């Protein structure tokens, strides 16, 4: 038990919160506290029946415990953590803002595409953003394929097709990830480009770690140098 607690404490906070929510929700379904029918994405029920929780639960349920759940959770945990501790290190508010931006894109897409749960697409989005920000890393997929990181989302898409899953889910994750990557990492650095994804200040206030401002140990003019000079002057006077 202590090992589990220690492992949880070592996780970066956003990764810990999201993966923990996924595991807890799946456990609740397994224990029959809730059913998947109360969790899936349904725009009509959200708008007309005010079931707003579906905007969150549809991202946190990856199916019953099994190989598919384990596979998705490993990828979610791994690439969420590597993003948070990598390119988003020290920028927790930007990381949360990326979460919200991607979730909004997927909700808008889900209105027109019949997808019940959005968690797998969200995982693919995280993988896509990480892969584009780490283009030179060599990947090995189950010891069969060797490729560079930018091809990873497409390999996962192929693997999903081989398992008979809906390829639209992976395409949607790739598309949402590319939109974020283009607006954040490409367009602002082009000629006449502009950065549109600016994290609101209130999010920075809530999520970013605030470092204490350095306190001056000596407020007299000259600080420590003034003291040194004073001691030196005193020694000179003693010598005289």
From TrEMBL:
The chain crosses the membrane at residues 17-40, 52-75, 95-128, 140-162. May be involved in the degradation of misfolded endoplasmic reticulum (ER) luminal proteins. One of its GO terms (cellular component) is endoplasmic reticulum membrane. Gene3D superfamilies: Rhomboid-like. Keywords: Endoplasmic reticulum, Membrane, Transmembrane, Transmembrane helix. GO terms for biological process: ERAD pathway. This is Derlin. InterPro entries: DER1 (IPR007599), Rhomboid-like_sf (IPR035952). The keyword Endoplasmic reticulum applies.
């Amino acid at each position: 038990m202590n090992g589990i607690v220690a492992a949880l404490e070592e996780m970066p906070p956003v990764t810990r919160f999201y993966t923990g929510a996924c595991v807890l929700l799946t456990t609740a379904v397994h224990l029959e506290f809730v059913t998947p029918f109360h969790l899936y994405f349904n725009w009509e029920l959200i708008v007309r029946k005010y079931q707003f929780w579906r905007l969150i639960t549809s991202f946190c349920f990856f199916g019953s415990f099994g190989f598919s759940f384990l596979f998705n959770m490993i990828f979610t945990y791994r690439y969420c953590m590597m993003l948070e501790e990598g390119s988003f290190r020290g920028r927790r508010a930007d990381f949360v803002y990326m979460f919200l931006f991607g979730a909004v894109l997927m909700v808008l897409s889900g209105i027109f595409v019949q997808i019940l749960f959005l968690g797998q697409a969200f995982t693919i989005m995280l993988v896509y953003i990480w892969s584009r920000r780490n283009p030179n890393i060599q990947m090995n997929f189950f010891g069969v394929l060797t490729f560079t990181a930018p091809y990873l989302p497409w390999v996962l898409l192929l693997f999903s097709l081989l398992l008979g899953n809906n390829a639209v889910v992976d395409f949607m994750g790739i598309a949402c990830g590319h939109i974020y990557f283009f607006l954040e990492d490409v367009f602002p650095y082009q000629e006449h480009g502009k950065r549109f994804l600016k994290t609101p200040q209130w999010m920075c206030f809530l999520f970013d770690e605030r470092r204490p401002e350095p306190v001056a140990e000596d407020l007299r003019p000259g600080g420590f140098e003034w003291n040194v000079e004073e001691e030196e002057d005193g020694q000179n006077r003693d010598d005289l």
